[in-house]
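Write out the 3D structure for:
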Amino acid sequence: MLDAARAGIQEGWRRLYSLYLLFIYGWLRSNSALHHDADDLTQATMTIIAEKIDTVDHSGRPDAFRELIRRILAFESMRYWRERGSKGGPKESSDQIQWLAQVEDPNSDLATQWNLEHDR
């Protein structure tokens, strides 16, 4: 699926997009600190995935793409909350900051949950 999407095969990209869109959105919605931002964060994450898909090199590690998406989600979440706060909107909450720290840590319980749900 990843190779097909990278090769520009429309069906491969469509499949990857629909699977990860649902996965990321569902994962964000299940977290009470994030459910209000799930639409925006999912869209931002999927946009970066689309921009970066050609540069993904999994180096034979089957979990590399999954980890990349988790890191993109963490980065986009941080960027989203900071940008929103700089425009006079609400800044990130302490729950969101705690969530972000866990998502960024590959050894956290939340990262483990991400991996388990991804592999279902």
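The two ends are 16 Å apart (CA to CA).
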